[in-house]
Amino acid sequence: MKKITLLIFGLVIALGVTAQTEQQDWLVGGSFALNTSRNTTVSLNPAAGYFFLNNFAAGGVFQLSYNKTGDNKTTVFGVGPFVRYYFGKKELKPFIASEYIFTSNKFDNPSFRSTVNGADFFIGPGLAAFVNEHVAIETLVGYVNSKVSDVPSDGGVVVRIGFQIYLSPRGIVDTYRKR
Questions:
Q1: Distance between CA atoms of residues 179 and 3, nearest Å
Q2: Who wins on pLDDT, 90 or 9?
Q3: What are the residue ranges of helices labelled H in the chain?
């Protein structure tokens, strides 16, 4: 793992890339989370957003997750807004992210089945490591709090690893101007 991290870091420095987090840029991608502390949780969070200001993006995120603790299983589908603010102008860009996701939660165990609505709130810092002008590998570490109807809220630390593709309308125009 250490060798992969060093390789990615070396590629980022060698390529001398510029990050695409300027006003009117787009981002598309997502993250993957895996938690195996007391149970098994797998979560996939695809997202798409728009930079309304330099370094400030907002958009929508989907949540698909599965949790199993013993015979108890939970499947969650959610959708909601996110915001991000990036710092700096280098190939390694730290950022802060927040999401609020409205969820539909299906609970299943041998004696009980139920579907209820809820919400997940996430906030935390991240780091985007640009491997070229348009693609970044990202890591987020933050706090997530889940609230489901008539059930006490549950929260904790989550680590997400993902990628984003940064699309710039200026880059597309510049490409065609050079031809």
A1: 40
A2: 90
A3: 2-15, 169-178
- Tell me, what DSSP letter sits at residue 15? H
Answer whether 63's CB lies under 8 Å from 120's CB. Answer: yes
Task: Kindly report the pTM of this predicted structure.
Answer: 0.75
- Report H helices in 44-168: none
For residue 158, count other CB atoms closer than 10 A to its CB. 19
Q: What's the rounded Cα separation, in Å, for the pair 21 and 92?
A: 12
- Compute the radius of gyration of the chain from its Cα atoms: 18
Residues ≥6 apart with Cβ < 8 Å to 136: 19, 93, 128, 129, 130, 163, 164, 166
11 — pLDDT class (breaks 50, 70, 90): very low
